[in-house]
Each structure stands twice: as C-alpha cells, then as structure tokens.
Amino acid sequence: MTIGNKEFQGIVTKLKEWIQLNYFDIIYNSEIEELSSRQINSKIIGRKNITVIVKTTEGFIFGSYHQNTLKITKNLLPIRYKQNGGYFLFTFINFYGIEPQIFYTSKYQDYMVLYADDSENGLIGMCSAYDLRVSKSTFSSEFSFIYDTKYTSDLFVGKTKPNTFEISNIIILQWY
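Now predict its structure.
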C-alpha cells in the first residue's frame, strides 16, 4: 500500500501550512529506491528542512520534520543527531482517527537516530518516537511523556514497543 497521489497532495498541503515553505523535492522514495540505511543516509546527511513521511501496511501515516542541517562529524554510526529545536512529529492518518496534528517537545532535546550504512535492519529513528526498520519497526511508549500531548503513545500506529508494525512506504522531502 503506497501513498497515493491524492493522499500525497493532502499531506503536502498540510506540511506547507505547518512548515511555511512552499517548494520541495522528493529526495527519497522507498517505492523506487532501495530500502536501506545507506540509501536514506546518502539522501539526508548534509541537508536541512527534511520531512520523513511513513506509511504503514495498516494505512497509518506519520512522520517528522527536521529544520536543521543533518551533519556527521565522525564516521561513527549509529549516531544520535542532537536537535536543538526546529523539529516536530506529525500524524496524518492514525489509530484514533483524529485530524492531522503536529507535536513538539518542550521538556527535552530530541535526537534523530541514523544507522550505519551497513545496518541490515535499522533505517532511521526519532528518540521517544519511531524506530524505522526494514522489518519490525516500533513506536516508543515514551512519546506521551516527552511530547506535549493529551494522547497516548499508541496514537500513531495503534501499538507501542515491544509490539511492532511494518512499513509500506517512506518518502523524504527537502523543503525550500
């Protein structure tokens, strides 16, 4: 189940409103390119204004926006790329059926997790949120404690770690 054209246009319209940028390039699409950490890293490292959009096999759509440039200072992966603001999580289609929303954390700094290029399963993650893998991805039970929300952590995919979900499609956009 891929993100359809009409569905994609709805997502882009809402992201434009949230991000306040009007133009984007699709820099990664797992339907066209290899689903691997190497491929994802090659598309996002050194870039800013990145949106990761995920669709699960159950049809849920969520993701994150990262305003700051993703830099690697050492060739050590996996790494936790510390984000000092300029990011948020979002949901479009979710387990609770609520309208699309964005979520910020004011309690802690957050981290994007980049896996080593040769990782067999790990793809990309957000601490206290999602951990995307080729197989058996998870969503953290810590989300509702770290982010400013009235919803519980199962909002995004209907389950939390240790329960898993499968990815149908990942699309990464760069905004300008």
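The chain has one domain: 5-175.
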